[in-house]
Amino acid sequence: MIILTAGCQVKTIKDKNKSVIICSNEVINDLVKNIGGDFVETNLAIKSGNDPHSYTATERDIIRITDSSLIIYNGGNLEGRLEWALGKIGNITPAISITKNIPEDKKIYSGNDFNPHIWHDAALWAEVATFISDNLVKMNEENSQVYFQHEEIVLYSLMKLHKYIQEQVALIPTERRILVTEHDAFAYFGRAYGFETLSIQGISTYAEVSSIDINNLADILIEKNVDTIFLEATVPDRNIRLLQATLKTKGHFVKIGGTLYADTLGYNNSYEQMMRHNIDTIVKALLKK
Ligand SMILES: [Zn+2]
Predict the structure, then answer these.
(1) pLDDT tens digits, residue range 168-206?
(2) pTM across the whole model
(3) Which residues are CB-contacts of 154 (< 8 A; sequence separation ≥ 6)?
(4) Does residue 202 share a domain with residue 157?
């Protein structure tokens, strides 16, 4: 058993060959596991399938974070109150935000607010893979060869995934490449793969939605002749159903194209499966008139 001291905290690491890393969500966890391999033990802050925007760190989470070697989180206000909690914890555990490293010209903003849903662009996610690999090397330089080998494999599969999504999108007529969802989680997906994205809520899921918002969006969908809208796995379907009903009262019928994974992996075993599920669902729905 090894005891490390950091600040005034005493950390206990059971297996000296493994670094315990807290990953804020399952999307980041998938990437860290793929690069860290057997040298890392990962734990989730936000439970599988939970909406990250409404996350509040529990006392148990704080203990797990302070007891770990590193926490890797998305940042940009994706994870509810996590950044606030990290501020309270201070420097006890090194914390890395994967979005802080994204070049400014690749970031998407809604007004002044940064949109944190970067992983929906597989090419941008590849940059995050390199960033994570570099940080794991900084933490355990003796494992650098293994981390870099794993990074190569991850980059190759992300490149293949990116190409697969592009090929699938090419099947959809250009005028039908409009993605309507509950919240603004697909802005990076839209930019990377050529979709216009529209949503009821903004970049978070906790804002109040008024009937005026629904009504305004309904008018835009009629104008653009949109006939398909999508549910999101972690958000109640109330607003999407309301949008559908509002459109019906205006004499415009839209179908539900399926459920997309905006903020979680859902039943998918990996990031890649989740991305494939999303694009396959979108293509199937938008090809059907
Ligand atoms: Zn979101």
Answers:
(1) 999 999 999 999 999 999 999 999 999 999 999 999 888
(2) 0.92
(3) 31, 34, 35, 126, 129
(4) no
